[in-house]
Structure formats: structure tokens, C-alpha cells
Design brief:
CATH superfamily: 5'-nuclease
Oligomer: single chain
Largest sheet: 3 strands, parallel
Strand content: 5-15%
Strand order of the largest sheet: 1-4-5
CATH architecture: 3-Layer(aba) Sandwich
CATH topology: Rossmann fold
Structural class: alpha/beta
Distance between the termini: 21 Å
Length: about 140
């Protein structure tokens, strides 16, 4: 059975209407849960909501509702957090040292976590997907 790791670009559209929202919702309904995420996802999710409030795309109350919905889904078992180890950081450094992708730090860590856990990373980020392909990491780019 295929297992999945969602990066933050694939989580946020589940909670607020975005271009990829329908694809994410349909995909989540079609797979076995829980979906793996990391504590990094929590940080990026909070950062994205903060940015959306600063840009006035959401107000503070809306951001709070989204934050609570995400927390509730985590508690209900839709998402399962997996932890980083030193091995993930070592892998990220190796990939970044190749200097053959436009990956940045946090995306490289998402890839290392999914790759070493034999999880297919699900993303809405075309650059991340292209880099995953180049590095031999199983991925799914939504929408297809």
C-alpha cells in the first residue's frame, strides 16, 4: 500500500480555497490515511497563515479557524507527524551540495524525510516536484 507525505503546499489548499484545493480534496478522499507530515509542516503552516493575514488575504479570525481545523484533523488522525533525525539533515546537505537543483533548505528537508521513510511526497510545488524527480525521490505533483 502506497503511503504519502504531504508538504505544506499540499496541506494549505485543503483548508482554504486556492487553485489546487479541489485536487487536494479529491486526492485525500482517494487514499488511505493517515498522511504523514512533520513538525516542519506545522511551522510552515503557521508562517503561511501569518503571511496571508499580513497580506490581508485572511483576517485573524479566519486564520484562527483554519489553524483550529488543521489541529482538529491532526488530533482526529488525518495526519501523522513523523520526526526528523540527523540522517535526514545529512541527506539534505548531500543533495544541496550537489548544486544541481533549485531546492532550498526546508524543501530539501521535506524530500529527505519522505525519501528515507519510503513515502511518496505530495506537493503542489512544481519546482519541488522537478527536483524530486532529478534526485530519484518518489513524488506526486497536484494537480496532475
Amino acid at each position: 500500500m502506497e503511503q504519502f507525505y504531504f508538504d505544506t503546499s499540499a496541506i494549505l489548499p485543503y483548508y482554504r480555497e486556492e487553485h489546487h484545493s479541489q485536487s487536494i480534496q479529491i486526492f485525500l478522499l482517494s487514499i488511505t490515511i493517515p498522511v504523514a507530515i512533520s513538525h516542519l509542516t506545522d511551522v510552515e503552516f503557521a508562517s503561511a497563515l501569518s503571511r496571508l493575514v499580513r497580506m490581508k488575504e485572511l483576517d485573524d479570525a479566519q486564520a484562527g479557524i483554519i489553524e483550529q481545523a488543521f489541529a482538529d484533523d491532526c488530533k482526529a488522525g488525518l495526519f501523522k507527524r513523523i520526526s526528523f533525525t540527523a540522517t535526514h539533515f545529512t541527506q539534505a546537505v548531500k543533495w544541496l551540495s550537489l548544486r544541481n537543483t533549485p531546492l532550498r533548505t526546508l524543501d530539501t528537508l521535506h524530500l529527505a524525510l519522505s525519501n528515507q521513510g519510503n513515502l511518496k511526497i505530495v506537493t503542489c510545488d512544481a519546482i519541488l516536484a522537478k527536483s524530486a524527480k532529478k534526485l530519484g525521490v518518489y513524488y506526486k505533483l497536484l494537480p496532475e
